[in-house]
Amino acid sequence: MLEQLKHWDRELFVYLNSLGIEAYDEFWIGVTTVQNWIPLYIAIILLYFTAFYWKKAVFAGLFLVASVLSTFFFTNIVKNFFLRLRPNNEPELVDVIRILQTPENYSFFSGHSASSMVVATFVVLSLKEKYPWIWVTFLWPVLFMLSRIYVGVHYPGDIIVGALVGVTFALIFYWIYQRSGKRFI
Fold first, then answer.
1. What confidence score (pLDDT) does residue 143 get?
2. What is the pTM of this model?
3. CB-based burial of residue 64 (10 Å sphere; 0-12 exposed, 13-18 middle, 19+ buried)?
């Protein structure tokens, strides 16, 4: 069963990756580059300080950072346990797929997917009362995740599991944040 899932994952990846158009390569490389999202991170910080007084903003920010760091460490533990090669490092795929990046670490599961979903989910949960439009934040991880397939470094299964891990960590940290932050409300 696991081998069948891996086969479907690989086939879906090859199909989705082949939809890439060379004219859009620079766009997707820009989307997948973490540093290009710094303005979004700054905007999130500003939203916290606009929505809450400074102590609560700092408190929420610390929980957001803790959720991201925990997700990052968990991702690396899992990657080094499963040791799944990235599509760009699979010898039988190299001549079949479009490769725009060549990271050497492992694929399962996507750290980009997990970290972007933990941030987006925590931000939405913590700011939805103040900003009803905050749900738009989920466009960021969707673009981020699609870019990982486009540049040839993650299978769809990596993306889906990463997103689920990110949401799970966000829910856990948001629950703890709510319970421990009663005095700030």
1. 95
2. 0.89
3. buried
Task: Tell me the CA end-to-end span of the chain in Å, nearest whole number.
Answer: 49
Taking the C-alpha atoms of residue 123 and residue 97, their distance in angstroms, rounded to an integer, is: 35
Output the DSSP codes for 63-128: HHHHHHHHHHHHHHHHHHHH-PPPGGG-TTTTTTS--S----S--SS-HHHHHHHHHHHHHHHHHT
φ/ψ of residue 54, rounded to 5: -60, -40
Nearest partner of 17 among 150, 110, 148, judged by Cα: 150
153: helix, strand or coil = coil
> Domain residue spans in the chain?
2-184
d(CA 167, CA 121) in angstroms, rounded, equals 6
Question: Which pLDDT tens digit goes with each residue over 44-56?
Answer: 999 999 999 999 9
Residues 155, 158: Cα–Cα separation, whole Å: 5
